[in-house]
Amino acid sequence: MIVAFSVTPLGVGEEVGEYVADAVRVVRESGLPHRTDAMFTSVEGDDWDQVMDVVKRAVAAVEARAPRVSVVMKVDIRPGVTDGLHSKVATVERYLEG
């Protein structure tokens, strides 16, 4: 299972990187495979409870410092697939090469 999520603090001004870093820090410390890009952080795990616990804690880290928080999530549930963060991208790259 892969969850891509974005946490946006509201009411803190235009510079939100410091707040987003709090959320990303939680993901990195979780030990689960993850990837952060300009728009989302993706985290991969075995089941809902494992992944959503990380997302919940990441949101809580931002919520602790911001008066309002917006969260966007996209979930890919595909039992039996591991390393989807890399294998999905590798598949697209193969098609681009050939």
Rough outline:
globular
Oligomeric composition of the shown chains: single chain
Instruction: State the end-to-end distance.
Output: 28 Å
- Determine Rg (CA atoms, Å): 15 Å
Spatially, the strands of the biggest sheet line up as 2-3-1-4
Element-by-element helix/strand order: EHEEHEH
Number of helical runs? 3
Share of helical residues: 40-55%
Taking pLDDT < 50 over at least 5 consecutive residues as the criterion, the unreliable ranges are none
Percentage of residues in DSSP E strands? 25-35%
Q: Which class of secondary structure composition applies to the elements?
A: alpha+beta
Q: Characterize the main sheet.
A: 4 strands, antiparallel
- How much is the average pLDDT? 96
Topology, number of strands: 4
Structure description:
Strands 2-3-1-4 form a 4-stranded antiparallel beta sheet, with helices on one face. The protein is built from 3 helices and 4 strands, in the order E-H-E-E-H-E-H. The longest helix has 16 residues, at 48-63. 45% of the residues lie in helices and 26% in strands. The mean pLDDT is 96. The protein has 98 residues and is an alpha+beta fold.
